[in-house]
Structures are given as C-alpha cells and as structure tokens.
Amino acid sequence: MATAAAAGAGFRLGQRVHAAGDPRRSGTVRYLGPVDGHAGDWVGVDWDGGAGGRHDGSLAGRRYFSAAGDRSASFARPAALSAGIPLPDAIRLRYRVDDFTKEEQDEMYVFSTSQKRVSVELVGTNKVREKLKNLDELLCVSVSFMGVSSTGSPEELQGLVPNLRQLDLTGNLFSQWQDIFSLCQALPSLEVLDLTNNIMENDTIGSSLLKNIRVLVLNNCGVTWELIEKIKVPFSCLKELHLIWNKMNIITTPVGKVVQGFDALRLLNLEDNHIVSWDELVKLSYLRSLEQLHLNKNKIKHVRYPSNLPSSVPLGDVSFPPFEKLQVLLLGSNEIEDFLSVDSFNLFPSLMDIRISDNPIADPAKGGAPRFVLVARLGNVKILNGSEVSARERREAEIRYIRLVMGKAESDDPEVIKQLHPRFAELKALHGIEDEKPTSRMLGPQKMASGLISITLKCVGPSMGEKQPLTKKLPSTTTVGKLKSLCESFFKLKDIKLRLFLEEEGCPLPQLLEEETASLVELGIGAGATIIVDEEN
Can you tell which superkingdom this protein's organism belongs to (predicted)? Predict the structure, then answer.
C-alpha cells in the first residue's frame, strides 16, 4: 500500500483526471503502483471515449486493470496528469478581468500598407472589462472543458457568483454527487446545471431538498435509472431532466411498476440511448406533470398506449390516466414499423406533437406511409415530424386517405376495415363522402366525366428545357406508368426516362411515385394535386 500511495502522488482509484496541459483529454484512474520493467511510480488511466490509449489495461502479459476499450488505457507518470482545479479558480480564469499582458498586447496588431505594425484596439473592450469586474452580477457561466474537479470553498463560490442562475460544467472532472450537492447548496439562485460529459458515480449519499434546481443535464454521464431513483428526492423540483447518451435500456423502479416522484417534471429527454421495449417507457406513464418525452434515436419497434394497466392509478390523493398531460412525443430514428403504433397515438389524452420520421413506418421508400396517411390516421396531431399540420392540409389529407382506402379496400366487411383503418368511417361521415367505391365499372359519358380529376404537371428535368406547367383532367384510374407515357406526349419528351413526384403540403421533399401499376385513386391523389415530372439520374 505504501508503494501504491507513493505512486499515486495524491491520486486515488476512481479519481477523474486529465492530461497535464490538455483538459479535453480526460480519464479515470484505475491503477496506482509499479509497472514491471519500468522504474518509478505509475498511474494507470482509462481514457474517455474508449480510445486514446495504448492497450486495454494489460502490459507485457500482465493485467493491471480492465479498461473500457481495447486501446483506451495507458500508464502515465503522476507529473503528466492533472487532478483539476476548483470551480472558483476556473471562473476567474474564464472571466478574467485583468489587463492584457505585454506579450498579448504585442500580438495584437495589423500591418499597414507600408508594412508597419499598427496596434489594434478591440471595440468595446473597456465596456466588457468593466462589466466583468463585477462577477457577482453574472447570471450565466460556462467553464466547459477547464478541468474543474471540485466546488472549492462553498463560501468563496457563493461570494464570487451569488446571483448565478445557469452553470455549464460540460467536460470536467466531477464524479462524486456530494460535490454536486455542495455546489447547488452554495448557489441558492442556481436553476440550470449542465454536467454533460462528467462521468458520475452511480452511488450517492443523502442530501437535503434542492428546491432551486429546475433543469439538470446528465448527458453522457454514465448514469443508470437506478441512480435517478436515488437522486430524485433532492432533485424533486426538477422541471427538465436530460439523459442523452447514457446507454440506458431499462427503467428500474424500486417499488411497484411505475416511476413515482418528480411531480414537477415536464420534460424528460432519453434520446440516443439503447431502449428497445416500450414496456420500459410505460413505467413513466404516471409522472403527473410530464408534457414532453424525447425518445429519438433509440431502438423502439412498437408503441402501445398502456390500456392494459388500470385506467387510473391512485398516487396520494389523486388519480389520473396514463400519460395524462403528455403533449410532445419524439420518436424519430427508431424502428417503428406497424400502423398499430401509429393508431395508438390517438389514445394519448393530450398528445398533439409527434415525431416518427426516420422510422420504417414513415418511410415510403421502405414500404412505409406517406405523410398524408399519417396525418389522416392521427386525428389530434397539430405538429407532425416538426411541421405544423394546417387545417387545409388535414382536410386534404383526410379526403385523400378516404380515396386511398376506398380504392384499395382489402375487404367489404366493415369490421375488417375498421380494424385496418380505425378512422375510416369517422372520416367519411366528417367529410360527407358516400360509401360508393370509385371503380372502372362506371359507364356512360357522365359517369366517365365524374371520374376525372384535375392534375397540375410541372416539368423540371434539366435536359427537358423550359416548359410551362400544364393542368389536365385525367381519369382517377390512371396508373403511374400510364401517366409517364402521357407526360412524354404532353411535354413532347423523347428518349428520357421519367420519374414522377407528388408535392404535398407540410413535406419538405416531394414523394416519389414508384409503383407503376398503382392508380391515382389508389394513391389517394385527388383533384388539385401537383405532380413533378423529372428525369432519372
């Protein structure tokens, strides 16, 4: 132990350090002691990011410790590492108010036309310097990647920035929750605390209630939900909790099947984790104030409203339905592929902003649904994939969806149709559309005319020349392949392979019409639609 203590030169196992002179290269001390074949004292470090080292904690056939990556570990002399600095020192360094040194002043010049040095005076320097003299007036401070490892003296910190409301500690060396609790207690005005890229220990001791903290950011901090359960008492007044990049895949609840507490929490950000099962997220359904749940970039395949749970769960003296106040649900870049998931969004009592872009179900190129189908199936949505659903877009999408279902009805059985298209009957009644299915059985000039729809065609191919848009009345049974042939005739195009795209309100890119045998009515394309005529690459 004496040897280890000497080797440590003040370091301890589990301590966060950075390379001397490089606060952005940080890691965790995993070994203190001698290294075979090398004289002197050594510190074994597992560097952040799973890389940046030379081995995995073993050297010359001997294992000293196990590192996170195959080449994330290395041995360093104590003098090559820094244990960091206290927060007050970092604030002074970042927001220093001293005059520039002579060396700095000598570097501030430009050359005149005669190649003489002309000193540069920064506009507003005196005003900024005067403002920064009063650090006690600072409301927001960022000391990201400055090697901060401790709160320092609480009294000194409170005296330095007594009015601080937002503190960004991204990429520093904090790891123990006691330091964080002390920091929050020393800054009674602090409301927003960002600890991104500080590898926090998943254990903590008790703390008094921290009523001041409203937003806590723990992105890429290596935390688990077990830890969140431990800190939810001191941080019970949180309104926002951000937990991006923590490799979470389960929501661990110590008592019962649902997460309780966090009564003021309005936004929970779990983006870029490893969540696969929606059942884990159902455990969050009784967070009574939750309005926004961010789940982009996980691995979720299905979503179901938790109707299998009791319709209300008593918590204290009140009861309420699952996800009662949830308004925003972001599920972009997951693996959702079924319409049951889409239809289940209608069961959430308050949901009106949904993101499901970059999921198979929302990608027509992968057999998913175009935007108009999603809008029509989601009756309460006001914002879809970041774009507002206007009243006009909703009406047009719903009518087009009705045409689509009528043109491709899988069955005449109303129960089967209801199961496949839950809103179909409701939408027909809403828009006053009759049950008659438009088919090619219509006979006679009048019925043929009633099957015509007005389509605007825009020619945009670079080798097609400048051509004016055309508006044509076409049978609703016209297929994509037939329309391509007609466009060749309308625009006098020869030896050019065409691609057709449908312009849709709310979609940043037109939808490619790929299925040659699909008719306009089967695609839900109605009167007033705009088709883009382009050439294949």
Answer: Eukaryota
